Amino acid sequence: MKKLTAVVILFMAGFCLLNALEAVNPSKNGADSSEIVVGTGNELLRVPIDLYFKSSLFETLYYPSEMQNLSGLITGMKFYSNLPGDLTNIPVRAWIGTTSLPDLASGWIPASQLCPVFDSMLDLPSGEQVVEITFDEPFLYLGDGNLVLMVHRPLGSAHSSSNQFRGQTQGSNRARKAYSDATHYDPENPPANSTLSGEFPKTAFIFEPIEAGLLRGTVHAADGFALANTLIEALDTDFSTLTNYEGIFNLPLPVGTYSIKATTAGYPPQTAEGIVINSGQTTYHSFVMSVENSDPAQTPQVLALNAGPNPFKSSVLISFELKQPQALSLDIFGLRGQKVRALASGVQNSGSHTFSWDGRDDQGKPLPSGIYFCRLQSVEGVQTLKLLMLK
To answer: What pLDDT is stored for residue 301 in this prediction?
Structure first.
C-alpha cells in the first residue's frame, strides 16, 4: 500500500497530497467517491474562467457548512458551462488550500500558500455542459477551515462575452477576480487591483470521505513566552505543522492514536504519547519547553530585540546585542505565518548587530502594507516583534 504524505501550510488546515492514500483506519477509509455540490447556478457569470478577456485570475472561499462538514480526499471538481460554440485547448491552472480567514476582504491568498492541483488544457464544448477536472494530485481536506480555490487562465486569446459559467452571488466579499487583455498574472503575487465580490461558480467537488479530527494546542517556554515556528509532528506519519507567532498550532489528523513531537531551537524535543484523535472532535494538548542548558553562565545571551521606526514606511532597522558568538536566524513573517524575508542566518559575533528591512520579500518584490513579525531564533529560544508597514 502507498503512504499518505502531507504538509500543513502555516495556519492552514488542508494538505498537499504528494502520494496516494494509505488507509489509516481501514474500516472507515477507501469509501466510494461522492459529490458535494456548492451553489445553485441561477446566474451566468464569467467565473472561474473569464474567456472574454485574454487572461484571468479568480479566487473564492467555500465554507465548511457548504462542504457538508465532510472530511476526506478531494480528487476533482466540476463546473457548469454555457458556451455558444466549442472552445479547445484552453490553458487552466488551479490551486486549493484552507484558511481561517472569513472572506477575501483583506486581499488574495497567493498560490504560494496553496496546493497546486491542476495544470493542463481544457476543451469546452458548446451548450450547457459539465466541465470535469480531475486533480493531478488529490487534496486532503479534513473539514477544519474554509476551503480556498484559485483558478488561473494564462494569457491567450479573447473569445465572446457569451462564454459563461453557471454561478451565483452570495454576500459581497468571498471572491476576488482580475482580468486583462495584456497582463500576465502571477498567482504567487496576485495583482493589487482586483474586483471583490460575492460571485462564485456552481461547483461540484468529487470527494472520498475520511473520518478525522483536530489536534489543537500551544507551545510556550517555562516563563510563558510563546514559541513561534515550533515543529509539531505526528511520528511515523508525514503530518506536521508549525506554531504561529502566538505559539498556537492546529493539526488535523485522521482518526487514530498518535505520538506527537514538538521541536524548537534551544530546547530538547518533547514527545506526547497516546494522543487520541476522534472523528469530528478537537483534542487539546500543549507543550511547555524546558531550557536545555539551565546554567546562565554557559548560555549565550541575546539582549532585547528592537526595531525602529515602527510603524515604518520605507525601511525599518532591527537591532540586538550578543554577549557571546552564537548561531541564530533573523526572519520576517507575514500575518498568516508565511516567511517572506530572511535577514540573517548563521554564526554572529558578540556585540551589537543591526539589520535593515526595506519591506521587500526574498525575491525583491515590494510587499503590501500591513502587520509583519520579526523573529529572532537563537540557542536559548525565540523573540518576536510586531512590525507595522504603512505606505
So the answer is: 55
pTM score, two decimals? 0.62
Residues of the chain short of pLDDT 50, as ranges, are 1-14, 18-31, 293-300
Burial class (CB in 10 A: 0-12, 13-18, 19+), 117: buried
Domain made up of 296-389: CATH architecture: Sandwich (2.60)
| Cβ neighbours of residue 63 closer than 8 Å, sequence gap 6 or more | 146, 147
**Range(s) of the chain covered by CATH 2.60.40.1120:** 212-289
Please state which architecture CATH assigns to domain 15-209: Sandwich (2.60)
Residue limits of CATH 2.60.120 in the chain: 15-209
Domain boundaries 212-289, CATH class: mainly beta
Could you give the residue range(s) of every CATH 2.60.40.2550 domain in the chain? Answer: 296-389
Grouping H, G, I as helix, E, B as strand and the rest as coil, residue 373 is strand
Query: What pLDDT shows up at residue 357?
Result: 96
> Does 309 sit behind a cis peptide bond, omega within 30 degrees of 0 on the bond before it?
yes
Q: Which of 134, 138, 279, 300 is nearest to 208 (CA)?
A: 138
C-alpha cell at 72: 476526506
For residue 195, list its beta bridge partners. 177
Of 6, 277, 278, 280, nearest in space to 139 by CA? 6
Assess contact for 259 and 234: CB atoms under 8 A.
yes
